[in-house]
Amino acid sequence: MAHRKRRCWDVETVFGNIKQNTGFKRFMHRGMDKVITEIGLITMAHNLKEFSIGTVKAILVFFI
Q: Is the dihedral of CA 22, 26, 30, 43 positive or negative?
């Protein structure tokens, strides 16, 4: 029970963010290899978006 209280909640917010903001509901392909590729592309897109937001904020802080 103590382990549950200490576990990280960030992963759940990422999947919730992907589902809500991108409208991702179902996989478009069948087969484990294709699903792994698809979720990899979705998570890469999410990470690039988060990276670009952080980069823009860093640039704004630097110039302001």
A: positive
